[in-house]
Amino acid sequence: MHVSITTPDLDETDLRLLDLLQADASLTNQTLAERAHTSPATALRRVRRLQDQGLIARQVALLDPHRLGAGLSALVEITLDRQGAEHLQAFAARAAAERAVQQCWQVSPGPDFVLVVHVADMPAYQALVQRLFTQDANVRNVKAFFSVACHKFDPRLDLSVVRRARADAARTLARADAKPASGWPAP
Question: How far apart are CA 183 and CA 91, in angstroms?
């Protein structure tokens, strides 16, 4: 029996490194290795492998938009008139090219897209609406929700999901290996 795991072979050291880097990508290799309970050479080699595999997409600094003057945050639902693949791709490309759009999610069911937008103020939002939504004849409906407070923002992925998937896959493989050659379950 073959069990497919969507992640490359990751052991507990890889997952510890990923957890640590998610929390603070500015750690020196020495500090990273110490906190991951491995040698600096191993930490460096593994981080490079994780980058080569595309598991570490990029390392960035997270800025505080309100302290920098991008004081208006909005979640914006977009519904298009025509949902053909070419229309969805065209809108996604336009939204992704807009600097005020921080995230662009194609969703289902409901609206076609949900955008996370950060702008300086309401006039800047209105300018964005004109550029991105009003001038697009295929945009049927726009519904914006303006943030009054952010109670949580954490871009880290919960790697316990990966750990559980690995454990489930190992159990499934162990059960498959326990079956006798006849195909009947072992007593």
Answer: 52
Q: Give me the CATH number covering residue 19.
A: 1.10.10.10
Whether 95 and 47 share a structural domain: no
CA distance 32 to 166: 24
Give the residues across from 76 on adjacent strands: 115, 144
Identity of the amino acid at 176: A
Q: Give me the domain span that covers residue 40.
A: 9-60
What CATH number has the domain bearing residue 112?
3.30.70.920
Q: Dump pLDDT digits (tens) for 25-56.
A: 999 999 999 999 999 999 999 999 999 999 99
Residue 82 domain-assigned (yes or no): yes
> What CA–CA distance (Å, rounded) separates 101 from 46?
33
The string of pLDDT tens digits covering residues 76-103 is: 999 999 999 999 999 999 999 999 999 9
Dist. CA 78–CA 11, nearest whole Å: 41
Which neighbouring-strand residues pair with 106?
113
